[in-house]
Structure formats: C-alpha cells, structure tokens
Amino acid sequence: MALSCVLGVTLAARVLPAVYRGVEVSDLSIYRHMALIVLRQEDIYEVRNIFPYTPLSLYLPAFALQLADWLHQPFHLVMKVYPLLGDLGTTAAIFLLGQRRGNTRRACLLALAFALNPVSILITALHGNIMPLSVFFAFWAYYLLDHPQRERTYVLSALALGMGIGLRSWPVLLLPFLLRPGQLKWRQRVLYLLVASLPSVLTLAPYLMVNFTDIRREVFEYKSVADLGWVGASRAYYFLQTGSREAPRWGVWLSNSRFYFLEAYGVVVLAAWLVPALLDTAGWIATVLLLNYTVMGGMAAQYYSWVLPFLIGHPVYYGVFSLVATGALITFYLALHPGIVLGPFPPPFSYTQPQVFAWNLGFLIATWLVGAGWLLWVVRQLVGGRRVAALPPIAGLQPARLQWVRWCTLALTGALAGALALELPFIADSRPPTELSVEVEWSAAGRGPEPGHFEGPIGLAVHPSGDIYVVDLGYRRVQRFDSSGKFLSMWETEADAPLKFWQPSDVAIGSDGTVYVLDASAKMYRLTPDGSLQLAVDLVPHGASTPRALTIDESRHRFYIADAGRGRVLVLGTDGSFIDAWGGPDTALSFYEPAGIALDSHGNVFVAEPANSRIRKLGPDGKLLAEWKAKGVLFDLAVGPDDRVYVSSADRGRVWIYDNDGKVLGQAYDSLSAAHVPQARALAVPGDIVLATESSLVRFSVHLDDHPTQHLRAEATP
Q: Where does residue 352 rank: exposed (0-12), middle (13-18), buried (19+ CB within 10 A)?
C-alpha cells in the first residue's frame, strides 16, 4: 500500500506538468528526427551530432511516433513515457532499500525525496530526455548486486547494467565499483563483464560491419557538450562580457577536461580496489559521478539525474545538490530552450538573456562547489579511516520478490534487446543516391557577434543585384553580403528605433529590390535595400502564431507565410490584407510546424515540415497536389528557375535535389562534407545555389546531364 502511494505521487508529479506545459522542443524534436530516419530505414550514424550511442535505444522514438499516431496523442507526451517508467522503477528500488532496514516510514521518506525531486521532474516531465531510463537500469544493477544473495542475482545485475550502458553509455563508469574486491569471485567478475557488454555489442556489431567510419566518429569520438559544467560556466561568463557564447579555447578546455577526469577516475578506481571497505558501493558511485560533474568541463542538462538515487542516503548533500542543480537547469532552459519550462505560455515575468546567464553562472558555480565539497569530505573521511555509507546496507530478497525482479528484468531486457532483429532490414538496403560532385567557395565564415559572422542563420534570400541577405537568429539581425560573399552591412534592433527584431525568421526579396523580413513575433517588415523601414505589418489580427517562412508571388500580388504555430499557410495581399489560410488545426490539410516555403514558375507552393521530414506541393488555390518524405534531416527548401526542388539537410551538409513532383535526382554530399560544411541550413536558388551553414556561406552551381544515369556535376561559381 505504501509503495503504491509513493508511485502514485511519482506519477502525478510528472504527468501533470508534462500535460500542462509540455511542448515538443529541444531533445524531443531530435527524437522525432531520429524516429523519421529509422522509419525511412536510413542509417542514423551518417547524420552528425544526433545519436552518439549504441543502437539499443534507437527504436524507442520510432515506436513512440507510431504509437502517438495510432493514439492520436502528441508525440512529446508519448515519448515521455520512457523516462516516466524509469523514474517509477527507481522510486520503487529506493523504497525497497529503505524498507529492508525494517522501517517503512524511512522507506517512504527516501522514495518521496526522489519522487518530488525537482531535478528529476524537470528532466522527465518537461525536458523529456530518456536518460532516467538509463538511470533506472544502472540503479537496479546496484540494487541486485549489493546484498547477501548476490550469488543468485549478479547475472541479472550485469544484464541490467548492460541495458543501462546500451541506452546511454555513462553507466560504464560504475563497472569497476560493482566488481571491486569483496563483491564477486574472479570467475563471476568475468561473467559479469561479458553479460554487461552483450546488449551494446550485439546491437552495434551489424552497424560496425557496414559503417565503421561514421560510428567511430559519432559514438567513440563523441566529445560531450558544454551546456553546463565549468566550461559551460566560462561560456556564460564570456557571454556576459562579449554577447557571444563561443568563448576562446572552450573546445580545447572541453577536450582536456576529459583527460583530467580520466586521470582522477583512475585514482578513485585504484582506491576502491585497494581499500574497498572504506566506502560502500553507493558511496563509491556517488563519488565518481560527483567527480565527473566537478572535473569534466562539459555536461548536458540530463546528466544531473545520474547521481540522485546514489546520493539520496545523505539528506544534506542530496538537498543542497538538488537545489543548486534545479537553479542551473531552470536558468539554462530559460536562456537557450525557454519552451522547456515555459511551454506554450508567455513568461510570468520579464527578463533579459544577460540576466538569465548571470543567474546561470551563479548556479553553475554553486553546483561545482557542492561537488567539490563532497569530494573533500570523502577525502577527509578516508584520511580519518571512517567508513562512508551513502545508502543503508541491503538485506536479502524475499524468494517471491526475487522471482518478480527476475521476470521484470528479463522482460524489459528482451523487449529492448529485440532491437537486434529489427536492425537487419535497416542495414540491408545501402544503395547510395546519385552523388553530386561539388567544388565550394567559402564566402564568409566564423561564429560570433562580429559583422559577417553568424550564430544560427535561419533565412536567406538573394537580391536581383546579386546581394545576399541572411537572417541571423542568434544575434537577431539581418546581414547583407555581395555576390562574392563580402560583408556589406547589417540591420540590428536599436533602442528607440522603429525596426525591432524579436526572433527574425526569414527574408524575401521583391523584383524591385524591396526587402521583406518576417519575425516570429508575428510581424513583417518592408524595407528598402539599404535597410530603411517602409512598413510594419502586424500579423496577430490574422491569427498568426510563430510565423517561420515567407515567399512572394508577385504575379498574384500575394505573400505566402508558413505559420508554424497554427500549422497552416497564411495567404496575404501585398498590402498585408488577409486573403486565405490553408490548413490549420482540425482541418484536412493540417501542417505540423511548417518551416520552409517556396514557389515554382507555375505558382505552385512547396511547404517544408522539418518535424515530419515532409514536403508538400500545393496548387495556387491551396489544393494538395503531391507530398513526399524528405531525405536526411530537413532544414529548408528552395525552388530553382528549372522548377527543381532543392532541400538543405543537417546531415553533414547534404543538399538534396528533387524534380517538381518529388523524385530524387541526386545529392551534394561528399564534396560538401570534405569542405567541412557542418549543417546545410538556409537555402536559396536564384540560379546558383547559395547555402548558409552554421557559420559560413557557400555558393555553387549545378548542371544536370540528359544521361540515363542522371549523373549530376557542379562547378564553383567565381
């Protein structure tokens, strides 16, 4: 009864915020992209920086997407079932730990401390990352091993740890502490190591046989991120000083911190093997995880969930760490991913990005100090020869409950390890599309606030004169370059100026040279070529919500706007008057977050839906003519004078080329990848292809031969 009540509290504390404030942003959008790649039977390891893990969890987003469609529920809610199950399992394990001390009250308090932990709730209910599922398997591996009946449960413990490693690689750090002297015999340790490696080895082996290079880069050379940690703090400080998060040498610091951590980790492992009785298993694990937080320069937000169940036996450190980590998470989300905590609602108070980064810097420093304080405390206890216990010792399992644990663990393992059978059809078809040979010229490069540099280019257009206009979302400005890529000027939001960009999202050019800039605040600005404001159109009366892309049909005197928030195409007159709306909620032609729009010479409208990886072709009257699944991870699209459809992708700088009805003609891949184009983002095709990446402008031309093989070749544009 007590366990059921605690699990009910865990469930309610996560389901309510997930339903009330949950939206599909950040990692949840990435999970949708992963699902679409898997469902298209493509190799996900060809896509850079999207999946640096073994294939064990690869099919979870795809299953969630299929289930969401079948249940007619939002994908983000269905996807959050995975971390929710992980938190429920971890709560149950913590309760059982306390109960074996013969005190149900203590068991309830420990379990409720985790159930109501704000770090856990933020990561599961709002962020939606599946890391808590890996935490569950790692903690159950400890639970099954650290008790007198380990002779009967150590294989299940190894299997649970293997599942955790397969889902997310961090539980491999626990292996030396679970295998330290006094736990198992040598033969049992060898068997434990073999069983723990099985889920990752079996699921990764087929991919290694066909794509070793990409897997080595994505999995084994993964360098983490610098969102949090001391490098994240340095980037926050640098932002407060310069307005840019690209702190000098932060990449070097991130790489070096890995070696610092490995050296310190080796010392802790050596201590655990030489003097294993000084700390219990949970104490060693909590120590090494807090060591990771303290020494490793870069961390992702979800990493804070690792240590929670292992630290829960120390209420002071557990409470203080949870407090400062919650502050670090909330300020990080508000600064870079506000949709995670705000959901579909406006902020309850006004704030500026520098203010949030200042608070984030303070919380990151406090989190580091808590981790360092724990390490100093442990060293002091070790020097004094005192035993440190992070959790109470575990008594034996009751036979009936032991059987329940065995079947539950085997059922979960069988369900996830069955992914091995699913891999074969995804690997069987490896025929590459026709390759476009490209020579590229870097016209502009660099990330940062300096003129000519970018931080998230999101829209691009080419003026009849050849000038290139780029919407730089990161610094809320529009930059202008000449046809050779030389920086000319930029337009920024200034105090007391009528032109105020909140989130500029796209730019379009009229035949007379007039520049139109779309802003996600539901504004559209008409500017002269030199940036003088002529007209500001408020799109709110037309029901616009987060307009994302813009194109002009001058022959029909129309604007077409991809209204991502309402899932529709908004049709306006050139004077800003409302004409029509195609699609929208509860309509047959509903779009899912449309983010790209373009016209062909016949007035047909092409709409890109990156979240669905889908392209739709509409007639001038809004009638659906065709639709197809886009290859790769869709960013933007454009239609050339030849009426071919050009699509930019995050997949290592690919540009895919289709005919007017969606047939694949070829792709630019090897040459763009060799030129270190990280992501093909905004795209324009006024003749030549002009491509904006994360930090560069690339220009090249394409020619299609009338050869039966439809071979494509390209030449650099001087």
A: exposed
CB of 483 within 8 A of CB of 500? no
Both tokens of 244, joined, read 């840019």
Give residue 182's region: left, alpha or beta (phi > 0; psi -120 to 50): left
Name the phi and psi angles at 575, rounded to 5.
-90, 5
Stretch (H or E) spanning 301? none
Helix (H) or strand (E) holding 92: helix 81-99
* Contacting residues for 434 by C-beta, under 8 A, at least 6 apart: 664, 665, 666, 667, 709, 710, 711, 712
Q: Please list the helix, strand and coil fractions of the chain in percent, rounded to the nearest 5, in that order.
A: 45, 20, 35
Tell me the DSSP string of 44-76: GGGSTTS--S-GGGTHHHHHHHHHHHHHT--HH
Instruction: Answer for the pair 41, 429: CB distance below 8 angstroms, yes or no.
Output: yes
Tokens representing 604 are 């047909």
pLDDT at 218: 76
Exposure string for 391-406, b = 16+ CB within 10 A, e = fewer:
bbebeebeeeebeebb
User: Count of CB atoms within 10 A of residue 277's CB?
Assistant: 9
Is the distance from CB of 138 to CB of 146 less than 8 angstroms? no
How far apart are alpha carbons 310 and 98 in whole angstroms?
13
Secondary structure (3-state) at 15: helix
DSSP per residue over 475-514, as a string?
A: TTEEEEE-TTS-EEEEEE--TT-S---SSEEEEEE-TTS-
In tens, the pLDDT along 48-76 reads 667 778 888 888 998 998 898 888 888 88
Residue 315 carries which DSSP code?
H
Span 79-114, pLDDT tens digits: 999 999 999 999 999 998 888 766 788 889 999 999
Question: What is the per-residue pLDDT across 512-554, written as a single tens digit (0 to 9) for each?
Answer: 888 999 988 888 988 888 778 888 888 888 888 888 899 999 8
Which residue has better confidence, 633 or 75? 75
Residues recorded for the chain: 718
Neighbours of 315 (CB within 10 A): 12
- Tokens linked to 81: 């079932």
CA 192 to CA 207: how far, in whole Å? 25
Chain CA centroid to CA 491, Å: 30
Q: How many of the other CB atoms lie within 10 Å of CB of 6?
A: 23
Q: CA nearest 362: which of 338, 330, 327, 334?
A: 327
pLDDT classification of 141: cutoffs 50, 70, 90: very high
Which residues 6+ apart lie within 8 Å of 346 measured at CB? none
Q: What are phi and psi of 389, to 5 degrees?
A: -120, 115
Backbone torsion region of residue 243, taken as left when φ is above 0, otherwise alpha when ψ lies between -120 and 50, otherwise beta: left
Which H or E run includes 120? helix 118-121
Residue partners of 232: CB distance under 8 A and separation at least 6:
226, 297, 298, 299, 332, 364
Strand 664-668 relative to strand 468-472, pairing: unpaired
Amino acid at 577: S
